[in-house]
UniProtKB/TrEMBL annotation:
Localization, UniProt: Cytoplasm
Gene designation per UniProt: tilS
Lineage: Bacteria, Bacillati, Actinomycetota, Actinomycetes, Kitasatosporales
PANTHER family (alphabetical): TRNA(ILE)-LYSIDINE SYNTHASE-RELATED
SUPFAM superfamilies, per the entry: Adenine nucleotide alpha hydrolases-like, MesJ substrate recognition domain-like
The protein's name in its UniProt record: tRNA(Ile)-lysidine synthase
Similarity comment: Belongs to the tRNA(Ile)-lysidine synthase family.
Reaction(s) catalysed (UniProt annotation): cytidine(34) in tRNA(Ile2) + L-lysine + ATP = lysidine(34) in tRNA(Ile2) + AMP + diphosphate + H(+)
Function, in words: Ligates lysine onto the cytidine present at position 34 of the AUA codon-specific tRNA(Ile) that contains the anticodon CAU, in an ATP-dependent manner. Cytidine is converted to lysidine, thus changing the amino acid specificity of the tRNA from methionine to isoleucine.
Domains as described in the record: The N-terminal region contains the highly conserved SGGXDS motif, predicted to be a P-loop motif involved in ATP binding.
Enzyme Commission no: 6.3.4.19
Ranges for domain tRNA(Ile)-lysidine/2-thiocytidine synthase N-terminal: 52-230
Primary location: cytoplasm
Any one GO MF annotation of this record: tRNA(Ile)-lysidine synthase activity
Length: 351
């Protein structure tokens, strides 16, 4: 008799991601060898058994992911490790982190790290915690030379992310939700985006894995928690079952569109700059709005505007310097970045 269907599903999802990583590494090594033989560059191969880490909070999603990684990694020549982040936002969070470390080691993961972070206030509590968490994950992956970090986001998480993006009115990129592959060099992988939250929980039950239910997930003080507990159930009641699947499908379609528009904007940016590298307003005006605004956002971020604080309304104000020019003054953007029109050129700089 094979494993429980839920266990089989999560293992298959992890196996596919590990296969993708293996294929990418093989291709990179082949390219490196060719470059080395031609004398263009030196190439250093990774260890025979590259390391994949799982980010684990102790919840059902990440515990199911950890167990699947521990099972699948050795078969494909990977080492499996883990990391848990102590945000310090709840009493006893350090003890909880120690328990997660113990559970991951019992699964056979090695190395396993617990990292305490300091959560600031920029962008609100949820955004600040996320920024601190990813900074710690990046640092840990680099310290261990890990080739990837697996995250346990599910299809339900994806649906919530799409709705939050819709509420912010931030455009098609926000509606595209979380990418299956993201981060520098494709570091972060999300194997469960096509699986629902209940599948992960059933997998934990079938394997008798202890899980921790974070009280923040049901705390109405947090926007995502309210959406999870009230918003999505209300939508399903009004529209019927299948809302989560439809939102996840919308995320993928939106991501395809956003990727294509980003590529167009990247190519068009060079053409709208003058010999000095300044943006020419007339050439920007001739572009489709979706392409033009992507260029404006990209340039603002390069000038120092924090991406997480740069909203659609900011870009719309800058866009009016091009499409609705009436001699208006400079536009102040997050991160002390200033945008202004000067002599038919758009100047976006740190102010």
């Amino acid at each position: 008799m094979g494993p429980h269907p839920a266990v089989a599903a999560i293992r298959l999802a992890v196996r596919r991601v590990l296969h993708d990583i293996l294929t990418e590494q093989t291709s990179a090594q082949h390219t490196g060898r060719i470059a080395q033989l031609s004398g263009r560059s030196a190439f250093h191969e990774r260890p025979v058994e590259p390391l994949v880490l799982v980010a684990c909070s102790g919840g059902a999603d990440s515990m199911a992911l950890a167990s699947a990684l521990a099972f699948e990694a050795p078969k494909l020549g990977f080492r499996a490790g883990g990391i848990t982040i102590d945000h310090g936002l709840q009493a006893g969070s350090d003890l909880r982190a120690d328990e997660v470390v113990l559970r991951l080691r019992e699964l056979g993961l090695d190395p396993v790290d617990s990292v305490a972070v300091s959560v600031g206030r920029a962008g609100g509590p949820e955004a600040a915690a996320r920024d601190a968490r990813y900074a710690a994950l990046d640092a840990t992956a680099e310290r261990h030379d890990a080739c990837a970090v697996l995250l346990g986001h599910t299809r339900d998480d994806q649906a919530e992310t799409v709705l939050l993006g819709l509420a912010r009115g931030s455009g098609v990129r926000s509606l595209s939700g979380m990418a299956a592959v993201s981060g520098a060099g494709g570091r972060y992988r999300r194997p469960f985006l096509h699986l629902d939250r209940q599948t992960a929980r059933k997998a934990c039950m079938a394997q008798a894995l202890p899980v921790w239910d974070d009280p923040h997930n049901t705390d109405p003080a947090f926007t995502r928690s309210r959406l999870r507990q009230e918003g999505l159930p209300a939508l399903e009641k009004a529209l019927g079952k299948g809302v989560v699947e439809a939102l996840a499908r919308t995320a993928q379609l939106s991501r395809d569109d956003a990727d294509a528009l980003d590529a167009w904007a990247s190519q068009a940016e060079t053409a709208v700059r003058d010999a000095a590298g300044l943006l020419e307003c007339a050439k920007l005006y001739a572009l489709p709005p979706a392409v033009r605004r992507r260029i404006l956002r990209r340039v603002a971020i390069e000038a120092g505007a924090p991406a997480g604080s740069l909203f659609a309304r900011h870009i719309e104000e800058v866009d009016r310097l091009i499409t609705g020019w009436r001699g208006q003054g400079a536009i102040n953007l997050p991160g002390k970045v200033v945008a202004q029109r000067q002599g038919g050129r758009l100047v976006i700089r740190h102010g």
